[in-house]
Amino acid sequence: MTDVELTTKKDWVSDQEVRWCPGCGDYGILTAIQMLLPEFGNRREDTVFISGIGCAARFPYYMNTYGIHSIHGRSPAIASGLALARRDLDVWVVGGDGDMLSIGGNHLIHALRRNINLTILLFNNRIYGLTKGQYSPTSEEGKVTKSSPMGSIDHPFNPISLALGAEASFVARTHDLDRKHMMEMMRKAHEHKGSGLVEIYQNCNVFNNGAYNEITKRDARAEMIIELRHGEPVRFGAEGEHGVVIDRGVASIVEVADVGLDALVVHNESEPDPSVAFALSRLALDMSSPTPMGVFREVERPEYGHELDGQVARARAEKGEGDLESVLRSQHTWQVD
Amino acid sequence: MTDTDERTSEIQEVERIIVRFAGDSGDGMQLAGDRFTAASAMFGNDLATLPEYPAEIRAPAGTLAGVSAFQVHIADHDISTPGDSPSVLVAMNPAALMGELPKLEEHGTIIINTDAFDERNLQKAGYESNPLEDDSLAGYSVISAAMTDMTKEACKELGVKPRDAERSKNFFALGMVSWLYSRPTDPTVDWIQSKFKGKDLVIAANEAAFRAGNVFAENADLWASRRIVRPAVLPAGTYTNINGNTALSWGLLAASKQAGLPLFLGSYPITPASDILHELAKHRNFGVRTFQAEDEIAAVGAALGASYGGHIGLTTTSGPGLALKSETIGLAVSLEIPLVIVDVQRGGPSTGLPTKTEASDLLMAFYGRHGEAPLPVVCANTPADCFFAAIEATRIAVEYRTPVILLSDGYLGNGTEPWKLPNVDDLPEIHVEFLEGPNHVNEDGEEEFLPYLRDDTLSRPWILPGTTGLAHRVGGIEKDITGNISYDPANHEYMVRTRAAHIAKIADSIPEIEPKGDADGDIVVVGWGSTYGPITAAVGRMRRKGAKVAHIHLRHLNPFPPNLGELLKSFDQVIVPEMNLGQLARLIRADFLVDAKSISKITGQPFTPAELVERIEEAVND
């Protein structure tokens, strides 16, 4: 990735027809990435998108880069192998809530805890789209779908809480209606050394239309989006009149006028302990409560590929380049004449 | 071996001895067996070993379930199996005697640790009376020794606590057996000193116990029982005693060198395959990257990702793990990129018999994926052969851009044999080619790039991400020659048939197979994998008795060697011994319409040559 090339959005658009439903939130996310990638100065050929199965997982076909549309849930595992074998590449993982939190939940948390250099985009529409409308691991309790006609009795995952629990080194949330914010979160996740997870609230206009309307519509945002800004008190509202306090590990929403500005929690995304970030993540209780957006956590941790290559280099320095002859003779040998 | 040499002439020479060390899981029998083997290897015997241990790390002490055994066959001639019945049984406790005695040959020798034969242990083993006191062992030659007490006594002066000293009793037993079978003592003493370096008390205790056992045997007037097995005449060269898992790991290192590509192992610990992960993890200086994944699926996924990036992607597992990897292997079939999958088979189904051997994953290797998903299958036939099987599996994967399943099994993985080290300059070559630019000219005379354009072998190019001008997308959905999604019915049928033809075409690179033994006889015994040793021994015995029998042993299972069908049809009788219910026999019948007769054994133990002779004769006369 040494040759810096000047590219534009259209260089990153593949020749394949995009086949998401008209009006799908995925279009906005695709545009955001295609607009963002030229900024990095990387070659298209050094960029790889890896996905699993689901609507979101068609993503690689639409990118004029290298890509694998793999199998359900396994994209973090496949991407881990590629990112470790080829640290020169810029590896992205794209998938939905079913793909990465249900069938592939295990791979996601382990990729996050290992801190392999991957930028992971989790399109969360809280529904199974490609299989036509069953509840997902992020669907709210009571959700009536084809597979839950009497209402879902599954308790949902909060993806940010889950990622923080896995001690992910970079965790952010954004939504599909704010391209600028999406690009900002993806940019930061990409700059981060290690696994960067961006949860994107994404609208499925066919099976779960308007799920996030109460939070992400332009006129709702001031009251419903708690924007996290590093080093600043956590507050929201048109005039910044609401705020967040943390008491005994529990975050709650207060009126600034009642408690005073100094009582608000000051957001520190680089705090090594994930507890405060976790408390903030619990605020997104449902789809009609004020919801934090932005970077929850960005901390430095050793990157797995760097450590692994370090061991290879150290082994070579200590033992010399591997010599087969000496391995064959490394156990006891004897001579027959 | 100091002042005993003058009496060497009194020692009876024998062609072979089969010793079975048996005791509680915590008694150190695997170690004792392993050391006896090493000393015998250094002495120049040919040998074969069979370790058998419970799946539990510490099974209930003193019970039959907790018995751990190690059988070693040493001979003054070329042998291929751990033997039929042991001639000597070392029984460290009543459970070992109870469980293992039925295996001992008639009039065999039993070496007993009498200290363990107390009421409690006898009861746990299920003895109603003490076999040392009744006449139930009358037909055997019994050598009794109070091993625990004598070990403690030998360690008394060293400052070792009696409890710790007791743990060295396996070395006492080893010392006795070493004297009885005229093994040199130096290799064991040297090994103790290097193995426990820095732990002076442990060295002192083990060495004292070993010497005490040796001296005890000498002083106990056991001369009549003393035997010696002279060195075998083996081809000249440098030898090492190797187990299959180590040989397989080294074969992969060799394959990486031959291909000039780094190895990436994605693996999840599973018995009996974990030792390959352990061994390869030691060799980072070969550029090996071992990745202990969160599960079997992630292990193969990471390996596939690494292959896509131009490493030799490898995953190692046993049966249950192979089942979990099925879907990803299917993706590799669809992506048509190299991937090496090693299955060290064990007893199944489900958790089955984790520490026992079986060869029952053949049909899973062939067919264990949804859809038409053919892939090459190769197997290893002896512990040392695992080295060459690994190179061959990698060659096929890399040169044909396909996932390959390599079948080993628990017996090969843990069993050992002396191996004449190969010359590293003579190893097979592995050719690697990456596509570097457009590979086609279209009708308008313009250069273009087609990811699924095939070469003469029907293989598609291996294209590394990062290659200028070749950015493209691949995936598990059916695709056409561009790699892009295609739901076209005719294209799907074409792709399914082409993938099958691609794998079938690998036969072009497989040499014709030649039967051993009587190629012009009426009977052929066909095997694959670890039955190589027993079948070789059984066919040898039958031929010495005058029968005309041929032996075909397969390395390549899919595709079969090109002449296999024709060859089988030239025999009247085709007998297929397998450690499953007849999986290869079924494939042979299906592929060649040959009336193959199956011989099965599914006890978790390999065939012995004697039972195989009997069963082959039965099948022939059936």
Written overview of the protein:
The complex is a heterodimer of chains A (337) and B (622). In chain A, 31% of the residues lie in helices and 20% in strands. Chain A is of the alpha/beta class. An eight-stranded mixed beta sheet of chain A has the order 2-1-3-4-6-5-11-7, with helices on both faces. In chain A, strands 8-9-10 form a three-stranded antiparallel beta sheet. In chain A, strand 5, helix 6 (179-191) and strand 6 (195-201) form a beta-alpha-beta unit. In chain A, helix 3 (97-103) packs across helix 4 and helix 5 packs antiparallel against helix 10 (275-281). With 622 residues, chain B is of the alpha/beta class. In chain B, 36% of the residues lie in helices and 20% in strands. In chain B, helix 2 (94-100) packs parallel to helix 3 (119-125) and helix 4 crosses helix 8 (200-219). Classes of the chains: A alpha/beta (337), B alpha/beta (622). At the A-B interface, strand 2, helix 2, helix 4, helix 11 and helix 12 of A face helix 1, strand 9, helix 9, helix 11 and helix 12 of B. Strand 2 of chain A pairs parallel with strand 19 of chain B.
